[in-house]
């Protein structure tokens, strides 16, 4: 399996791990079917040759992908749908064909919010989790390392519910425990200023940005359902109930979840992510977008100091 070198170290590519995991699963489970757009067919060429009756390429028609997946699910198959920017481009079908019919499927996207800006605005999809938040019954995973992908994907493949797996081209230097909600990575003292939640690939940057602050840092790879109980327990042990969350998608997406988790407890919260109501028209590189949204290490450190030391 190939690797990708980042400032944080060397990490395996999430998408290649997904392809490998699904290819093996399709050999063992005749219920699995794969629905692709033309642009995502290449990595699955071998799978398509091995299982020609269970790999469907609909062309560059994301809406048709979801409708096809719903039809397959209603016949008893377990469809896996893979394409970039999948949720934003086919939201109407997600609402009516899958959710309204209570049909199960596994959706896997790649490219995240601005991982591949050179491919244009249509591939930038920071609003995907916020959109799915308007629909009932979705489980949403945002892994931060390639080794986390099989651990999150395997239960989804054998299930029957609606699951969204959001892959990124970037990530953390090491895998963390997943499948159990919030995981404390760094504990603050009993006088800690508060708690920072790092979602998926944001963890290493958050750890670097907060290394001089007395805060608890918790990692989260499954963002829906949100681990409200886990957050309440972490905050109960901390010196203050203030919470900062760093998400690799639309800023404030999980604000309502934190509010529900800490209902009845006085607290402040700060949500960081891609900016709302800001249209960045220069494509640039991923690091350029991180800086523009305040998601680079320096930007996160500035926000954290202003929030916790105010």
TrEMBL record:
Belongs to the transketolase family. DXPS subfamily. Coiled coil: none annotated. This is 1-deoxy-D-xylulose-5-phosphate synthase. The keyword Metal-binding applies. Pfam families: Transket_pyr, Transketolase_C. Signal peptide: none annotated. It is an enzyme of class 2 (transferase). Gene3D superfamilies: 3.40.50.920, 3.40.50.970. Pathway: Metabolic intermediate biosynthesis; 1-deoxy-D-xylulose 5-phosphate biosynthesis; 1-deoxy-D-xylulose 5-phosphate from D-glyceraldehyde 3-phosphate and pyruvate: step 1/1. GO terms for molecular function: 1-deoxy-D-xylulose-5-phosphate synthase activity; magnesium ion binding. Residues 12-175 form the Transketolase-like pyrimidine-binding domain. Homodimer. Its cofactor is Mg(2+). GO terms for biological process: isopentenyl diphosphate biosynthetic process, methylerythritol 4-phosphate pathway; terpenoid biosynthetic process; thiamine biosynthetic process. It comes from Nocardiopsis ansamitocini. SUPFAM superfamilies: Thiamin diphosphate-binding fold (THDP-binding), TK C-terminal domain-like.
